[in-house]
């Protein structure tokens, strides 16, 4: 008997209906002929046997990039030396090529298993099991990785990062939450064995909570991993000082910047004699005999943009100035990147949603043991695991997947429009 199998979003194919499990259930399967269509591929209603294939425009792009890799390999085979940018491109294309080749092998394996299900009654159960447990999960993973590799890399994807944290609304509870977030990112760096340092940390005069903090993670590529943490984080919980058991809502802002070295900045930017105003002053707060006795604190103002950076952590004025200049370079680089992105968006005829927006990105609800990221709708029921840094990757992965999907749609539109 023939049945109709629907392939979302638009394709329909005719296929055989096979009786399995002693005749108690039906599995609708189909064999592919020629090119595998871009669609959500499903066999009956088993969610474990569905995956969304790569769009033809992205496949075409992958083939073009493979051709570029072959050209670079030919160039190397002639004994020539690649420049720094070419060498970086060669590494990226090689990685993409490996994933694309593995994807092609898995697609062929998928087709062969479908053929077994259709044509070999003695092996169809084993083939279905392999599809569900091995081939389809692997294809989902490769589709995701291939989409990511096909997207243009982020401008500062290979940089270390700087995280700036400040309390928002909520008074003392907001400052305590800021301290909690700083601890979360420190523990996240520890989980991944990344080098980090607290560049600056100003405690509230009461000794409870933070007025602001700056965390530097020195791992190359950490900016690309953490950049989507930028935004307003919201906490809902009962403060320790609350006597009536009421839940309070507080916020803290996180800004993630690429850490720019002096070499990076010198090659891109020169400060004019009137661009900076550097003020030195006596440090305030805790710190012993050097506080309020030596002019070690430094405040740098970038006059064209109005950006102000103040550092007073070190006893040495020169060290504080070096730290302040590093943060200033990073803020300027990020500011210019965001201005370029905004200009590109304003030039488009159609706007796409993005995970870059800086509104409330995530809620931490302690009573429900829940963390929800509002950009992708992902929810994790493990406050302790998240704040310890061990489960934070689960949330980051979901946000990155949403961003990849959005950017892929935008790239497909550009490719189809011949941009």
UniProtKB/TrEMBL annotation:
Signal peptide: none annotated. Residues 282-298 form the Prokaryotic-type class I peptide chain release factors domain. Pfam families: PCRF (PF03462), RF-1 (PF00472). Keywords: Methylation, Protein biosynthesis. Coiled coil: none annotated. It comes from the Eukaryota. GO terms for biological process: mitochondrial translational termination. GO terms for cellular component: mitochondrial inner membrane. InterPro entries: PCRF, Pep_chain_release_fac_I, Pep_chain_release_fac_I_sf, Prokaryotic/Mito_RF. One of its GO terms (molecular function) is translation release factor activity. Belongs to the prokaryotic/mitochondrial release factor family. This is Peptide chain release factor 1, mitochondrial. It comes from Pachysolen tannophilus NRRL Y-2460.
């Amino acid at each position: 008997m023939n049945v109709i199998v629907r392939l979302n979003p638009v394709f329909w194919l005719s296929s055989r209906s096979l009786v399995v499990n002693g005749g108690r259930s039906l599995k609708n399967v189909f064999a592919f002929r020629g090119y595998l269509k871009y669609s959500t591929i499903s066999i009956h209603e088993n969610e474990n046997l569905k995956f969304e294939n790569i769009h033809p425009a992205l496949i075409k792009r992958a083939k073009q990039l493979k051709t570029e890799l072959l050209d670079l390999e030919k160039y190397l085979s002639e004994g020539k030396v690649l420049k720094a940018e070419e060498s970086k491109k060669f590494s990226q294309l090689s990685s993409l090529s490996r994933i694309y080749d593995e994807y092609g092998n898995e697609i062929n394996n998928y087709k062969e298993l479908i053929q077994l299900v259709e044509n070999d009654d003695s092996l169809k159960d084993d083939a279905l099991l392999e599809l569900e447990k091995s081939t389809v999960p692997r294809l989902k993973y490769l589709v995701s990785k291939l989409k990511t590799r096909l997207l243009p890399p982020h401008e500062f994807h290979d940089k270390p990062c700087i995280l700036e944290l400040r309390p928002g609304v909520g008074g003392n509870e907001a400052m305590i939450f800021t301290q909690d977030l700083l601890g979360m990112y420190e523990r996240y760096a520890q989980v991944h064995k990344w080098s980090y340092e607290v560049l600056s940390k100003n405690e509230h005069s009461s000794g409870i909570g933070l007025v602001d903090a700056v965390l530097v993670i020195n791992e190359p590529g950490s900016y690309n991993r953490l950049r989507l943490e930028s935004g307003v984080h919201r906490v809902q919980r009962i403060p320790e000082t609350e006597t009536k058991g009421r839940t309070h809502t507080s916020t803290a802002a996180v800004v993630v910047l690429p850490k720019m070295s002096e070499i990076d900045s010198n090659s891109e930017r020169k400060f004019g004699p009137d661009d900076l105003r550097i003020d030195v002053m006596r440090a305030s707060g805790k710190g012993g005999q050097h506080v309020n006795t030596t002019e070690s604190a430094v405040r740098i103002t970038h006059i064209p943009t109005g950006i102000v950076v103040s550092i007073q952590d070190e006893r040495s004025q020169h060290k504080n100035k070096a730290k302040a200049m590093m943060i200033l370079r990073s803020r300027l680089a990020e500011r210019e990147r965001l201005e370029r992105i905004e200009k590109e968006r304003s030039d488009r005829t159609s706007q796409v949603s993005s995970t870059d927006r800086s509104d409330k990105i995530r809620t931490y609800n302690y009573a429900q043991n829940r963390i929800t990221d509002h950009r992708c709708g992902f929810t994790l029921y493990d406050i302790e695991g998240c704040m310890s840094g061990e489960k934070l990757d689960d949330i980051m992965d979901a946000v990155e997947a949403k961003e990849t999907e959005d950017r892929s749609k935008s790239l497909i539109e550009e490719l189809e429009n011949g941009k």
